[in-house]
Batch of 4 targets.
Target 1
Amino acid sequence: MSESIELLRSKIAHAGTLGSVVRTMKTLAAVNIRQYEEAVRALGDYYRTIELGLFGSLHLTENGHSAFRRQHSRKVLVIAIIFGSDQGLVGQFNDLIADTVKQEIATISGEITVIPVGERVQTRLEDAGVHTSTLFALPNSVNAITPLVGDLLTEVERLREKAPAIELRLFYNSPVSGEQYQAVSMHLLPFDEEWEKQVKSHVRKWPTSSPPEILNGVRTVQWALVREYLFVSLFRACAESLAAENASRLSAMQRAEKNIDDMLEELGQRYNERRQAEIDEELFDVVSGFQSLGENK
């Protein structure tokens, strides 16, 4: 059964409206990507300053103790913070990070606390058999990242006070190129030889000829640097995760826009064909009527 002109007009109108919505969502995703990427870049200089402070205080101790040395304990609490997505149209975003967490957790022996950021990634983790702890809501803007990071650091500090020693890990999706992203696993605490090598490779040399000194409260200053290091690391992980999420959504919107354009083109062709068929029928009726009048004469 052929479609009527009215039905085709309605389909074309609905497709056009949907196209407008998709274009708006595409624009919002592009704007969000830009602001999250700029937030990460803005942290660059501050992060280098923190690394410089860490580098300068690596060799310092207070009564033989340093905030950078790992506490030897048989009981270590592993804290895993996982950033996901609570928005739609992001494909396998949460599944990818949940699978990565499950694989790494399987290699960890001992007590572990999993802190999900986002309800949907928490659901994926629970479905995968990973027990989760306190749930944190995802931020919806750059300005909302700082309060979230503050809450996460407070939770980490609360857990640290109850455990002889902790190990802190981050899991998030990071943009690669275009709409592509990859799951990242980052080891933040405790500081080990690999971390020390990384800091030294980034800084290499103290900028002045005089070595840095801390006259009083070496460990206090070191812990202050550690907290700032954790803040920057968490902020960057969250911002990169949100940028990757919006890149995935932008890709989905681009595909949807192409599909809508193809649909509009097809509907337009069918409309023109149906309209032409109706015109042909009307002309045929006119010609037939004229011929009938001629025969009657």
Note: The mean pLDDT is 84.
Target 2
Amino acid sequence: MAEKSKKSWFGFKKKLTKTEKKERSKAVRNTLIIFSIIIVAVGLVIGFIYQERFVKQSYHFGEKQLDLEITNAPDWISPELDREIGESAKKGGDIFILNEATARRVGENLRPLAWLYNVQVSVGSKSIVVNADFRKPIALVTANDGWYYLDEKAVVLDYVPVSKLTIVEISGVPAHQLSARSIGETWQREDVTAAIELIELLDKMDKQVQPNKPLLAEIKSIDMSNFNGRRSTSQPHIVFYAKDGTEIRWGARIGQWHKNLEAKDEEKLAILYNTYKEYGTIQIRAAQKGSFIDLTRPQNLNLPIDRY
């Protein structure tokens, strides 16, 4: 039966008549037309999807309902941040006209906003168009006057809820140094830099080995109070805490494991992610599997990926 089916597809060719050739040519032409229509339809659908996302980042301000359009806003922007951008753009006036003067004013209003950089503003056919890069918060610090975010370069951002992102709190650092005046500045501290490096390392690991269920989402905070052994040389220098309170003893900062005779950094990652794979969580306190995970002791384990 299989042989017959094969021959029916590839064998027994016969010479076509002129009428049959015309019919086949017409059929091929119709098929190409239908295919072209499908391609155009898909393109229109994609265009509408893009336009919908584009419009979602559109603001009306001023008496004449002038549009401000953010062309490349990331999908993690929250309504609160969306509103802050819109309010910042329209500072200094109630009447906005679609011209270069308005574009300049909007640019001047948005450039001091810490969330944005490389801000470019232009006049579109029906709106003021803003193209900018966004700073993505990855860490949170609790200061005397409230919360502040830090991006990957330790630039300080004002706090607004951003529920779509995994953000780890950094504790054990002199948070009293931060205030509203710090927004937009880089917080240059060795312990803060070390904490951010670790957060980025776990994020990179998640993307490679746990993209669907990131381990970092279970981390609540990273304690830097004993950074470089400043409180006790015999205790772990850096400690993570899971959301259930499980203590994860990382130890020395990245690249400094040998100074304390600890497990290598890649070995620490292997222990951590093997534990996550075995239990399906690092919140072992809640799972009644223990109260801490010690990553500092050499185990001679292999990393779940070739390198980190």
Note: The first strand starts at residue 58 and ends at 61.
Target 3
Amino acid sequence: MCTRKTMSEFPILSALSKTDAAGLTEFRRIAAEALAFDGYAPFNEQGLFDLHSGLRTAYLVRSNDLLVGAALAGRGEIDLVITPECRRRGYGRAAWGELSALEPGVVTAWSHGDHPGARALAVELNFVAVRTLLELRTTLADTEESASVSLDGAGISAFRPGLDDAEWVDLNALVFATHPEQGAITEADLAARQAESWFSSDDFLILRDVEGRMIGYNWLKIDGAIGEIYVIGVYPDAAGHGFGRALMQAGLQRLHAAGCSTAALYVEADSAGAVHLYRSLGFTDHTVDVQYRRLAD
């Protein structure tokens, strides 16, 4: 049961080491409860990869003996979630003050689901919105009969672990040169994702031109009824030939064949061309994430 505390009893952060199994179990429990309540995860995949690799630190948020939330901090980024039953009691504001002190200088923070409480807190703490990430979804039964697109001699085949890694990392960096997370993926990051239980090279679709060069890809994440277009990209000089649409159609057909009922993807709201393509394929808004940045004092 959550009750309002006096200021002297307000939250403190408990940093968790990578070997603190009990603490990390509580961290994951709080995240799972928030996901079940809100319908979206409080920590994104990149943040959890950073936690696993030691680049960010997990925290539990406590008020005396009461566990009221969890957080991630490091690399100039902060993510915070308060348990559903403990919201609107000032815990988030107090925890945020402590987290901000841990990250001097420029700090960014995600509001997953564009929560109105987070919006109000951002204004109060001198943060401004700098990015908007859309999660779009479509029912696969509505897309399985889409007309095919000509590949002009190019062909789609499966990713070959150990052979395609370096070429894919280079292409991905070129495609997402201005993207702060996706464009920075290394071969080590790729290997970490290949170690995930959901990874299958057959679900990593590679588009090659007539000379065998990689010019596009559609990496799928199949893990239950909702299949994800995990990341999709086309070599910039090959843009405008319908390759993106062809890769999308191939991915949607594969998700449907795998038994997925829904396809999901994430896209920057200001990526007008990509958003237009996805909407033309039947995708509609599901959730909105907003990233905030702290203004200089």
Note: DSSP finds eight helices and twelve strands in the chain.
Target 4
Amino acid sequence: MTRRVVLSLFILAAVLVAFSGCISPQFTESSPSYTWTDEVAVQEAYDGGYAPSVAYSKTANAGYDTADQMIVQKSSIELEVQDVPAALDSIKSIATVHGGYIGSMSVNTRSGDRLYGLATIRVPASSFDPVIEEIKKIGTVKSQSLQADDVTEEYIDLQARRDALSGQLVQYQRIMEKAENVSEILEVQQAIERVQVELDRIDGRLKYLDNRVDYATITVSVHEPEGVGTGGGFSITSVINDGIAGLLAVTAGIVIVVISLVPFIILAGIAYLVYRVWKRRKAKDT
């Protein structure tokens, strides 16, 4: 009887151990992992005093690996045209039609009374190539250059820094709510101001890069063709200018020679005076 009771108890204990093993939680690679969110990290920082946001530093760059490339496109074109004002009007119309605008425009006169114009336009990046092709049809292309600057890395870095600073700003603001004396309030307020200034600077740079990427820059210089015989023809103005330049050159040479001879002239004058004095004394003695 006793043996049966012991055996039954042993079997019951084995069954209970096996059953507890079946119902215990199994942690596998597919089990969900629990990580801090920004909110929890911030809250714990304030419950136990200020501490850097560890969770934020881990997630600051999340989602940026697949960011689109950010390319700043620029181009410079030199055209020879028959009518500079008309060419500038055409460039302005092309920019307007494609949703762009004129950044700057000027007209000047070069040698031989030839007009020279310079225009800088901003057009949407998607219209960069079509606009260039239309501009090239205005006149004869003398030169052209293209430039593409990749600012993707800088942009992503600025975004990450802005997000990190935003997290710090939230922390400082919550610390401010729990500050108990004037010194703590002033210290936190200074920290908030420093972070806010840096955030404003980063936001300004991001807006600048956005604008440079969204709108390409095209600089177009136009000039009239050089007239036949204007390169070596007779000009009374040029003759007078050459004569004046020659006269000034001769005058400068004479001045240099005179200044160089002044010491010798002084020495010769002193020697002559000594000779006259000596001659007079000799005449008196005789």
Note: Helices lie at 2-23, 38-47, 54-59, 84-97, 128-136, 152-178, 182-214, 236-285.
